[in-house]
Amino acid sequence: MHTFPPISLIGAPTDIGAGHRGASMGPEALRVAGLAAALAARGLDVVDRGNVAGPFNPWLPPTDGYRHLGEVVAWNRAVMQAVAAELAQERLPILLGGDHCLAIGSITAVARHCREQGKHLTVLWLDAHADFNTSAITPSGNIHGMPVACLCGFGPQELTGLGGGAPALSPEQIRQIGIRSVDAGEKKLVRDVGLDIYDMRYIDEVGMKRVMEEALLNLGPRDHLHVSFDVDFLDPGIAPGVGTTIPGGPNYREAQLCMEMIADSGRLGSLDIMELNPALDVRNQTAMLAVDLVESLFGKSTLMRD
Ligand SMILES: [Mn+2]
């Protein structure tokens, strides 16, 4: 059983980068589902920092290939500062989204922290989508489909350079799991940059256990693991409360195993819980499932197993 640093919850109540309204209610739904109490019941020190603030969603069509770029930048800057402040106090930030564009701010802060601390960052991106669109290839202009590309330096300078200079990540630092929807132009781009994608076909072929063994291979004491958990990673049969449901995701047991194996690695250093959309949920069941899975991510297991 690994120990975890004290935890800080940070809400980012916006759907500024999404294609449906409602992810702005995600932080509150996770609180109502008892996230803080569930972690505290595991003996963890948890503080809820409340929400960061940002501009309203004007719900406009794209300009030059992006929807709401200025507002997305403002929200991401606020998220980056809030996440950085927790990391500087040696706390483990959990970002409560909000749509997945906010992972740009969150991971930019984590990447800078790791550089300063001489740690090696690996990002596990749990998602139905690769989120590697650019303005040239995006079908919609929604920036929640672009965060991985932006973090790797493909995107508008305001987002790729959010933390200052170079891109926050190189593609080798990212492992994507659960992917089953990649747009046409995106397919070529993720192949060209060599993104490490464990798609659903691969999970079907070799099983979640081997996928996680490969994704978590060779993590050592100098490694910081960031998990960016898009709730649409999960099969919509168990997780209807997301804007972009794609059939054929991990089932309950596969998702639990994924989280438990990340916990076993002992390297979890930061987390995003993204894209939960209470407007599309059924009696908050998706939020409660997310809390259940996050408990496993922080070491809850059926038996004592060390
Ligand atoms: Mn996503």
Q: How would you portray this structure in words?
A:
There is one protein chain. With 306 residues, the protein is α/β, with parallel strands linked by helices. It has one domain: Arginase, Chain A, CATH 3.40.800. It is 36% helix and 16% strand. Helix 9 packs parallel to helix 10. The structure holds manganese (II) ion. Manganese (II) ion binds next to loops.
Q: Summary?
A:
Helices cover 36% and strands 16% of the residues. The protein has ten helices and eight strands.
Sequence of strands across the biggest β-sheet: 2-1-3-8-7-4-5-6
Overall number of domains? 1
Protein structure class: alpha/beta
Count of distinct strands:
8
Query: What is the average of the pLDDT values?
Result: 96
Main pleated-sheet profile: 8 strands, parallel
| CATH-derived topology | Arginase, Chain A
CATH-assigned homologous superfamily: Ureohydrolase domain
* Beta-strand content estimate: 15-25%
**Rg from C-alpha positions?**
17 Å
What is the correct CATH architecture? 3-Layer(aba) Sandwich
Distinct small molecules bound, one entry per kind: manganese (II) ion
CATH class: Alpha Beta
- Share of residues in helices: 25-40%
The number of helical elements comes to 10
Molecular shape: globular
End-to-end distance = 6 Å
Taking pLDDT < 50 over at least 5 consecutive residues as the criterion, the unreliable ranges are none
Q: H/E series, N to C?
A: EHHEHEHEHHEHEHEHEH
